[in-house]
Amino acid sequence: MMWSTTAWVLRTWLKVTLILAALVGLAALVWSPGTHPFTLAVIAAILLDLLAVRGLLREWAFDARGHWWWFW
Known about the structure:
Blueprint lengths: L1 H29 L5 H29 L8
Helix pairs in contact: 1-2
């Protein structure tokens, strides 16, 4: 059960990261790198990725609390 949750968290994180990387790549096509809008797009992508990781870790920890190995 725990491994399925861990795999789900990793798959979801990878999907979110790939989507954000694609959006940053699109921003690089629209604005040249080094400009203010591009920098804001990169910062926004980093913050969204950090928020996604935080939420996914919260889900993983919630599921881990119900398993015996959490208490060791």
